[in-house]
Design goal:
The protein is α/β, with parallel strands linked by helices. The strands form 2 sheets. Strands 3-4-2-5-6-1-7 form a 7-stranded parallel sheet, sandwiched between helices. A 6-stranded parallel sheet has the order 8-13-12-9-11-10, sandwiched between helices. Strand 5, helix 9 and strand 6 form a beta-alpha-beta unit. The relative contact order is 0.05. The structure holds adenosine-5'-triphosphate. Adenosine-5'-triphosphate binds next to loops. This is ATP-dependent DNA helicase.
Length: 934
């Protein structure tokens, strides 16, 4: 019996069907109906892809979600395509290959597999058939490992020789990309095969992948351009995505349980039809989360690589049968366990890449029924992953390793953006997958509950500020221990990831971990050595023995401190002539510099960041000096809170008081000084103005414009209006500034400024105890914001100062108004006019703005009761519009302010007028996007 006969003998239902159609398209349809038993193509992507593959005119790339019918895209052309012979299907999953081969055989199609589980006799039988002149086999399933054996190459050579090599289909082709979480190194070698058998058309099939992964597939597999690309949309309309922040929750486990129960549905306890998956970063967290959930009444089981094989299988089995509701697992669990009734997927730690997240979350709602996917994001998890990826990048030796490590890092940054920014989750993912953008409207938290997401993000930001504030030295010095722990965790994460038994990768990771470990040990050794060296005598820096930044030693710190002291002195010397009554001792300036140096040293992560921060501070100090402004470091310096001063006092042996108390700080000046001092200030600045003719001396020209004076002295504080709530509590508020590290903000980068500003610019937010999408009452938002921004004059620094100073001087508000009006007129008439009085030349645009604002505030303040009533009325009619999403929160505040002032000004504070005013606005436009519309 020859090979062909043997193969036929062993194939009970080998493919016998003879097509009656002649053209390949007709053959395709006939085979679809008669061999596969399908009436039609499952979707247009499947149809187009099958026709393209069958035509055999070019290489084809197909991307479709799990279960969308990809297999048919090569199975059907293998039988009805333009090319005769054997289609070789490369797949990494032996279990899925075996299932497919059985299914094909049951349809009468001659399919075989060659992999490590197949017996020698089987291999011999199949090989004999393949090497025959007319192989019976139509589809041959092999693993990527098998492809590179010599035996297999000789089979392929023979097929080529006999012109019986029809197609190569690469299933799960995304495994070629490091960006995908299923990376399989053997896939990288497949490109060589493509080159060797260049005449055979290739088909690459993937689940839905990002553009980056797709490009990797095309590149690494060496697909021949032009490649025909067929992609199904990545939009999963039945999945609701959201992100919550663990740091912002009292008990995240409670939240996880509520989330799971709400996704499983009310009747779940009785029907037990749905199930869920929780993804964790480590084996330990799998165990811990499963334990917590079970204790909270939700039957859960861990399943990870640390368990024995039989325990893993048992857990999967029980979960698939519905014996347990929730399986808590690490990345890699997906294989072979897809069940359609998964009602939720929770990521207890953020996924490493968008591709990974899409695939893992995509296991929810396979049956098309509603499902939910939530990420429990935390700064700690994020930093840990970033650290690992960064160190991978540093440890990478070859160019390829470097590119891959860099890609992984970049990929995670996208995931970070997904969590830390408010974009429609669906559109975000679709953009990553190169699909047409489509706003989901209500299938994600950002679209469904935008305000709730805003508040969550605010809260998350706020935890960053408070965490920094609370962190103290003892915690931070444990960094060294933490590093070692992180290494262990890193190993752990990768062990979990490598469930596929990929030894190469494990070796690589172990090498990377070891080398990193050695580097850290060496660094720690250095630190130890450094600790043995005594710090220089008379060291002026705070905590000279600390090692917050490994490569910044005490000498470097001393250098930077001296330079900082020099710059601060220069700023002080330039500005003090302008500020009568404000004096600092030499020691104060050093303390100020020392505090600042220490705060930079303590908060920056590496030497570059340390130096960069200094460069920025120096620049800001010089800038302030150039503008004759006292830098905020000096303005807000408070020796009673100075760490340097405390340290100095602690170490003083003698009772000699070297820390002479300053009589008052600048802020104290504001609080304590009388109008007399202001008058002095006024006259001295006037003198200076006339002598120097510098425009910014306008800052202190008008004694009444005291708020403005401060505003200019602390230019960057302008937006932090809550600081200046009035002269009476100025000192208290100044301390608040220090609490929130505003000094740092003032000297920080734009991005950092933005981040830090949350605590000042935004009103208090609602806490979501359960982390679930709790809606805040808009009545409260409106009220709070209104009050915060406009309602009472006490919230406006400028007006407050005007009023206060004015009252003290015995004049009334009307006179201020007149004064402001007069100034406004004269300024607006012609600022460049030569007949303009000398004094006016010193006013810049800010003055005009201030004057305008003051005018508004003044008119409002004449009748605050009226204004409050007007605001209440406007809010009442505006609220329904807001709920209908016709305007944003910002617009709400602006309109509220504008309309209530208008009502007061027109003496129309009635319900009727308020309603009319609001209605009128929305008659013109359905939605208001700009205050110009008002
Ligand atoms: N044209 C069709 N009409 C009806 N059913 C189809 C059609 N094409 C495929 N199917 C069925 O759809 C199901 C999923 O198909 P298949 O296993 O090929 O999906 P897949 O995209 O390869 O999924 P995975 O990514 O999990 O491998 C199978 O049961 C298959 O028989």
């Amino acid at each position: 019996m020859n090979g062909k006969e043997v193969a036929r003998e062993n194939q009970p239902n080998s493919y016998q069907y003879q097509c009656s159609s002649t053209g390949f398209k007709g053959k395709v349809i006939e085979t679809l109906n008669n061999v596969f038993g399908f009436q039609d193509f499952i979707n247009s992507v499947q149809e187009d892809a099958i026709k393209s593959v069958a035509s055999a005119s070019q290489d084809v790339f197909i991307s479709m979600p799990t279960g969308a019918g990809k297999s048919l895209c090569y199975q059907l052309p293998a039988l009805a395509g333009q090319r005769n012979g054997v289609t070789v299907v490369i797949s990494p999953l032996i279990a899925s290959m075996t299932v497919q081969v059985k299914q094909l055989q049951s349809r009468g199609i001659c399919a075989e597999t060659l992999n490590c589980t197949v017996s020698k006799e089987e291999i011999a039988r199949v090989s004999e058939d393949l090497c025959s002149a007319y192989p019976c086999t139509k589809l041959l399933y092999v693993t990527p490992e098998q492809v590179f054996t010599d035996e297999f190459h000789s089979i392929l050579d023979q097929l080529c020789k006999n012109r019986m090599f029809a197609y190569v289909a690469v299933d799960e082709a995304h495994c070629v990309s490091q960006w995908s979480h299923d990376f399989h190194p053997h896939y990288l070698k497949l490109g060589e095969l493509r080159k060797k058998y260049s005449r055979v058309p290739w088909v690459a099939l993937t689940i839905t992948v990002s553009v980056t992964v797709m490009n990797d597939v095309l590149y690494y597999l060496n697909l021949k351009p032009p490649v025909a690309v067929f992609k199904a949309s990545s939009f999963r309309s039945n999945i609701y995505y959201d992100v919550v922040f663990k740091e912002c929750m009292d008990n995240p486990f409670d939240d996880l349980k509520s989330f799971a129960l709400s996704a499983l549905g009310k009747e779940w306890e009785f029907t037990k039809r749905g199930s869920g998956i929780v993804y964790c970063q480590t084996k330990e967290s799998c165990e811990m989360v499963a334990d917590k959930l079970t204790k909270l009444g939700l039957n859960s089981r861990p399943c990870h690589a640390g368990l024995k094989d039989e325990d893993q299988s048992q857990a999967q089995h029980d979960w698939m049968l519905g014996k347990i509701s929730v399986i808590v697992t690490t990345i890699g669990f997906r294989k072979g366990t897809d069940i359609p009734s998964v009602r939720f997927v929770a990521h207890w730690s953020v996924a490493h890449s968008v591709d990974g997240y899409y695939q893992e979350s995509g296991q929810a709602g396979g049956d098309g029924q509603p499902a939910r996917c939530r990420i429990y994001y935390s700064r700690e998890d994020r930093n840990l992953i970033m650290d690992i990826l960064k160190k991978d990048e540093q440890a990478a030796k070859t160019q390829e390793e470097k590119i891959k490590a860099h890609s992984a890092y970049k990929s995670f940054k996208i995931m970070r953006k997904y969590c830390e920014e408010a974009h429609c989750r669906h559109s975000f993912l679709m953009k990553e997958f190169g699909d047409e953008l489509y706003k989901c409207k209500k299938y994600c938290d950002v679209c469904y509950k935008p305000r709730s997401v805003d508040r969550r993000l605010d809260h998350f930001e706020a935890t960053r500020v408070s965490k920094k504030k609370n962190s103290n030295h003892s915690v931070e010095t444990s960094n060294e221990l933490y590093e070692v722990e992180r290494l262990e965790q890193k190993k752990e994460i990768y062990n979990c990831k490598n469930t596929s038994g990929d030894t190469n990768r494990e070796d690589h990771i172990d090498r990377a971990v070891n080398s990193l470990s050695n580097t850290i040990k060496a660094e720690l050794g250095k630190v130890k050595d450094e600790k043995l060296i005594k710090p220089p005598k008379n060291s002026r820096v705070l905590e000279p023995l600390s090692s917050f930044i490994l490569d910044v030693n005490v000498n470097t710190r001393e250098e930077y401190l001296s330079k900082l002291e020099e710059e601060i002195k220069a700023n002080y010397n330039t500005c003090t002539p302008l500020l009568s009554g404000f004096r600092l001792e030499e020691q104060d300036i050093l303390d100020c510099a020392t505090d600042k140096e220490f705060s930079i040293f303590k908060t920056k992560k590496n030497i570059d960041m340390y130096k960069k921060e200094f460069a920025q501070v120096f620049k800001a100090l010089r800038e302030s000096s150039k503008n004759l402004e006292l830098h905020p470091l000096l303005v807000c310096f408070d020796e009673s809170h100075s760490a340097s001063k405390r340290a100095r006092n602690d170490t003083l042996v003698s009772g000699k008081d070297i820390s002479k108390e300053r009589s008052y700080s600048l802020c104290d000046t504001v609080t304590k000084s009388s109008l007399l001092k202001q008058e002095k200030l006024f006259s001295s600045s006037k003198d200076l103005a006339s002598s120097t003719n510098l425009s910014n001396i306008a800052v202190i020209q008008r004694s009444s414009n005291f708020g403005y004076q401060l505003k200019n002295l602390i230019p960057s504080c302008a937006s932090y209006s809550s600081i200046f709530t009035g002269t009476q509590n100025m000192v208290l508020k100044r301390n608040e500034v220090q609490d929130y590290e505003i000094l740092k903000t003032l000297n920080s980068t734009e991005e950092e400024k933005k981040e830090s500003s949350f605590s000042f610019e935004r009103p208090p937010f609602a806490y979501e105890r359960t982390g679930g999408p709790v809606e805040m009452d808009i009545e409260k938002i409106g009220a709070n914001n209104y009050e915060y921004e406009t309602c009472s004059s006490s919230f406006n620094p400028l007006m407050n100062n005007f009023i206060e100073i004015d009252n003290r001087s015995g004049t009334n508000n009307k006179s201020i108004s007149r004064c402001v009006e007069k100034e406004e007129k004269s300024v607006s008439s012609n600022s460049g006019n030569s007949t303009f009085p000398q004094k006016r030349e010193t006013h810049d645009n800010n003055n005009i703005e201030i004057a305008k604002k003051a005018k508004i505030m003044q008119s409002a303040s004449t009748n605050p009761v009226h204004l409050k009533s007007a605001a209440d009325l406007v809010r009442k009619f505006l609220n329904p519009k807001y709920k209908e999403n016709k305007l944003s929160k910002e617009m709400f505040k602006k309109i509220c302010r504008t309309l209530s002032h208008r009502l007061v000004d027109q003496n129309q504070v009635t319900e009727k007028h308020a309603k009319e005013a609001v209605d009128e606005l929305f008659q013109k436009k359905r939605a208001l996007n700009s205050i110009d519309d008002v």
